[in-house]
């Protein structure tokens, strides 16, 4: 089957299981998930969805999220959109709920209400907006980061000297203008005109700012970076909205964009660039100081807490920090440490596999999800194995802590390991690692950190991840599978056998897999 036919078939299989086109209110996707705004959650057949070969799992948050994995989701989403558009729902053709839907409707509504109450705080909604600004930039960061790594390798080897300048231009061009893209996305996310946000942010990278003095110093092109661009674009949105309220309609097309760029631009040049530049420098200085002076302990804490941060949706606050570090130093030193959380998750899943030899359902889920976990796609293992079981999620965090502590220790000893892009994790991060020493040393430290995370997660889960009651409940041959974790955090057996790759769990609060790669 051709690739496009396969993607369309996947989309066609998903559509009826989410209640048909009439039940789909909005469609979007991120790095790994198809995000759907649904009119009636009770029309979704979760079990059938999770049984589809292409589906790694489902997560319910503000939107209903179907985990398809990187690459796949970007190809399936357009096909899904076409199918929904072709269906053109009319009155009377709304899908009918299954017989069990009425019984589950009340429970589903209660769960959704709890999740929305937990996730719809002003702070988390703000973080979600920040993530929506930066997540669309990740594909370019990855592509340019890999090209930068390839160029560095060729330069070090002295190969293809006529080609390396071109590769350097390809790798650096996007980063030189990233502030413009951040400004564009910021204005779009905050309800303004995107191009005006980009226009104001473009001031930051314009070479001519080097002729301007502010706060007793000469400005530098790019000063303030992505943080300055974000602030400038948010200001532009508020100025634009103010103008829309007060400027006469006949003059709006001339006056509003002029005042938006003029006012926001002046504040950006004579205020935001300096302030954001100081903040950006402080972030880089603090990250270096933290890992240089307390690398092992800092790495242990960061690696151990990252999975809970993802569960709470707080990991999104790290996205602009990663981007700022990449803009300043060429790589982010935090991502390889946070990626160890995924290694702990893999080790924990392997321990579960050996501790439950009679539960073929869970073992089958682990076998199907483990390759994705090794490549940094952690949702199937998290939501299908460790989180529903309870304790193994905690011991997975322990594995991530030891892996993070290992990488942090080497930073403290002078061997920096960073990533030139955000998004990938696990083995997929190898092409993006960079550091202050040779590539071989950097790769070796990162690889050894993964190994430490695997081993620590395995041992912690094998010896401490199961109570007697948990083993009695799950180490059985009736092919049970864990289901959603209840509000008390305890595991509950599902009456339905799990299908291969069925994560059979829900995310208690993560709006997005991180670009720091669980």
UniProtKB/TrEMBL annotation:
Main location: membrane
Molecular function terms from GO: kinase activity
InterPro entries: Glu_permease_IIB (IPR036878), PTrfase_EIIB_Cys (IPR018113), PTS_EIIC (IPR003352), PTS_EIIC_1 (IPR013013), PTS_IIB_1 (IPR001996), PTS_Sugar-Specific_Components (IPR050558)
Domain PTS EIIB type-1 positions: 8-90
Gene3D superfamilies from the UniProt entry: Glucose permease domain IIB (3.30.1360.60)
This protein's record includes keyword Transmembrane helix: yes
Keyword Transmembrane: yes
TM regions (residue ranges): 133-154, 166-184, 191-210, 251-276, 296-319, 331-354, 443-464
Gene Ontology cellular component list: plasma membrane
Domain PTS EIIC type-1: 128-480
Catalytic residue list: 30 (phosphocysteine intermediate)
Gene Ontology BP, a term: phosphoenolpyruvate-dependent sugar phosphotransferase system
Topology in the lipid bilayer: Multi-pass membrane protein
Subcellular location as annotated: Cell membrane
Region (Disordered): 481-518
Keywords per UniProt: Cell membrane, Kinase, Membrane, Phosphotransferase system, Sugar transport, Transferase, Transmembrane, Transmembrane helix, Transport
Domain of life: Bacteria
Protein name: PTS alpha-glucoside transporter subunit IIA
